[in-house]
Every structure is written in C-alpha cells, then in structure tokens.
Amino acid sequence: MEVVRLASETDVAGWRRAARALRAGGVAPEQTLWTVDGSGGDLLAGSAMGEGGPTGAGQAFTVPRAFIELADLVALHRSDERFALLYSLLWRLGHEPRLLEDASDPQVQRAHRLAKAVSLAAHKMKAFVRFRQTRDEAGDERYVAWFEPAHRVTELTAPFFVARFANMAFSILTPDACVHWDTEALVALPGADPAEAPREDALEDYWRAYYASIFNPARLKVGAMQKEMPKRYWRNLPEARLIPELIAKAEGRTAAMVAHAPSTPARRVVRQVERKMRDASFEAQAMNNLEELAAAVQMCRRCDLWRDATQGVAGEGPGRAKLMLVGEQPGDQEDLAGHPFVGPAGQMLDKALAEAGAPRDQAFVTNAVKHFKHELRGKRRLHKTPNTGEVTVCRWWLDAERRLVRPRVIVTLGATAALAVFGKPMAIGASRQKAHQLADQAQGVVTYHPSYLLRLPDADAKAKAYGLFVEDLAFAWSLAA
Ligand code: URA
Fold this sequence. Notes:
Elements: E1 2-6, H1 12-24, E2 32-36, H2 48-52, H3 65-74, H4 82-93, H5 106-128, E3 132-135, E4 141-146, H6 154-164, E5 170-173, E6 177-181, E7 186-190, H7 203-214, H8 222-228, H9 243-260, H10 267-279, H11 290-297, E8 323-327, H12 332-337, H13 344-356, E9 363-367, E10 374-377, E11 380-383, H14 388-405, E12 409-413, H15 415-422, H16 428-431, E13 436-437, E14 443-447, H17 450-455, H18 459-480
Parallel strand pairs: 1-2, 4-5, 8-9, 8-12, 12-14
Antiparallel strand pairs: 3-4, 5-6, 6-7, 10-11, 13-14
The structure holds uracil (URA).
C-alpha cells in the first residue's frame, strides 16, 4: 500500500505530483491511501515510490485539460474521498481516454457533483463576504471579513476580491485559510479563529439600511430567498438580522402599498381641471394650486408615457417649501402608490436627508417626468430612462410646480433632473457643492441620484458616494435656510 501524505487539505499541487508519480509507477488506485497530515513536503515518504522519487521516472503521459479543470475544483471539496476519487479517474483515463465524456459513469458523475458544489460555494463566498473596517497599530485602514465557506474555496475566490477591491487593503479569514491583500501582494496563510475577526463597525448600519431599502415586500418569495441566501451564511451578514422582521412585516407592507394605489384626486378638483382644459388650450392653463396641478397630471397626454403607467405622480410637500428636490421619474412603487420617492430610492433619500439635518416634510419632493417609463420583462417592470424629448415636454409640469412653490433652492438628483432644471446636461461630480443661479431666482444644487448609490457594487465606493450625497443635501439645506 502506498500512503500519500499531503501537506494540507488544499495541497492540490502535492496531489498532482504524487498522482503523477504513482500513475507513472503503475500503482493502482486500490493500492493507494491518501491522507493529509499537515507536515508538508514528504509526499511518499517511507514507500517504494518515495524511494524512487516522487516525480515518477516511468513513461510520460498526458491528461485531458477538462480533467485538470475538474480536479482543481474537486480537490477543494470537503469530502474525504476526493483525492482517491480523482486518482481513480486519472488511472482509468490511461485506458479509457474518453472517460470524462461518459455522463453515466458513477465516478464521473460523482466528480461533477463535487465540482458543482465547490463552484456554488465559491459563488456564495463572492456574494456573502462582508468586510468590517478596522485600523492597524499604524492607524492604516484595513477591511477584515470572517467567512465560513461550504468548501475550501478561499484561495480560489481571492483573485475575485483583489480585482474588485484592488485599492483596499483587506483580509478574508476563514477556518481553512486566510488571504491578505495590501493593494500590491496577496498572501495566503493558514486558517484562523472567528475570534480574530471584528464583528461590528460603522458600515453595518449602512448595509442594513441598504438591504431594507432594496427589499420589496410585494416580491417576497421566502423559499427562493433562502435558497439564494442559505441560513448557514446569515451569521456573518449584517443585513441578515433584518430578514425575520422584514418577512414578518411583508404582508402588511404589501397591503399598505395596495391600499395606497392608486390615489385619486377629489372629484371636485377633477371637474374643475376638466372644465379648464375644455375652456382653453391645455398649455395656456396656469393651474392655481398644487391640488389642481396634481389632478391635471392625471390627464396629461403630452407624451405617450401615460399609456403604460398606473397614474401620474405629481410633486408633494409644503406649498411654500424653501427646498425643492427633483428626481428623475416615479419608479415601480411610486407608480403604484401615486407618491414620489416612497420606494428603495426614497428610503435612501429619507435617511440621507435625516443625516443632513434637512427634514423631508419641509421639502417639496417631485420628479422631472411624472409617469413611470418602463419595459416589461416577464412580470417585472424594468425602469427605462426617459429621453430628452420626454423630459422636455414634461418640464411644463415641473415649471408649474416651481412657479407655485417658489423654492429658494432646487436640488437636482441625478442627470435627468439636472437636464430638466438647468435645461442642459450638467457633469455631477464637477457641479456639486456649488450654488448655481437659476432664472426664477432659485439657486440650483446638483447631486447624485439615490438609485445610483444603491446600484454601486463596491461597498467602499458606495459608502463614500453616500457621504458626498449627505454633504450635498446639508449644503442645499443651509443655502435654503
Ligand atoms: N426615482 C426617482 O427619480 N423618483 C422617484 O420618485 C422614485 C425613484
């Protein structure tokens, strides 16, 4: 019996060397025993093969590339049989060169099952690693994550995190291995203890707010959600703490959304608006107040967007607000509820306004375009950006709101709002933190759209952009005051 001692559970290189030597030396799978003893180096010590040298002096052989790729994944599975299974396949390939094409072969099937489980574990690791901000003794920032992968995929997934967070010093600690990136070199070391990973930091609240804001109760499918985010990963996900509560409240929140939709203007107002629209040309009508304006928005046929929308969504807030916030267009939830900024972007806006010390209930909140532009993908309504023509014709409503409210400061959220308010495209990064004089005596302040922040994939970039967003809202509020 040949006993192979691999240096570690992920010693794939050691497995390859030993397997090559054993096969070249004609040692059959039944005569081999694969073990991991952690001592390293001496793969075939004490065996006839070891004395002959582990590189194998026998005849050279090649294996299909597909086998190498399969073996690289299977070797990372937690099953104890993996190295023996792989050696058995390698051995059989010598006389069955097309073995891997035989999908009914039990060993081939088993290897593919193990490889699939490893790929899935790598996918979950990419999705569920959450970094916590720390500082080392020198005061330098380092992001540290604790993670327990289903299989030994830490080193396999490390290049993904390096590509994604190239400028961020990070460590991912797992029970199997730890990888450390200092923005120049990646180092892999043995596994760690969960006590070595930090648990809480300032970004946790941010993650939770983000998760709560993207959670749409009307689309809740508990089974699918738990399949995608299995419970074994919840322990290290800051947002997981919210899940039971969000699930429990989903029914109530959906009912509230349905109860809101659609909101209808008073019949008296509708009749007045209809009369005015019969009396003279629509454009010539200056609506007298915000209530009439909201009713008139329901009858708007200035472009085709009304056809697919549930209803028009006019601006809301105090009729004499000093601050006006202009978004792009109602989203899926705003279209159903009939109110601006009540969905995920609205929740992020609310949080940022609160942090900026600018109370939302003292601002007039509206959109450049009053109907939800979208396309159907199955049952989902996917947002589509309004084009310049749609923004231009809808400006009639925004201008009417500006005339009625007469805000001191108008904040444009994102590029579409800036186009509608300034009448020309504005570069957001270069224009923010400045007061831009507008023709109607108001000052314009340019900032990002909250949906842009929600979409940023990189946690670090997201936190930074969110900070700038809060700064811009605070700047606008101080100007308005
Ligand atoms: N995005 C917007 O621009 N406006 C809304 O009302 C909601 C989302």
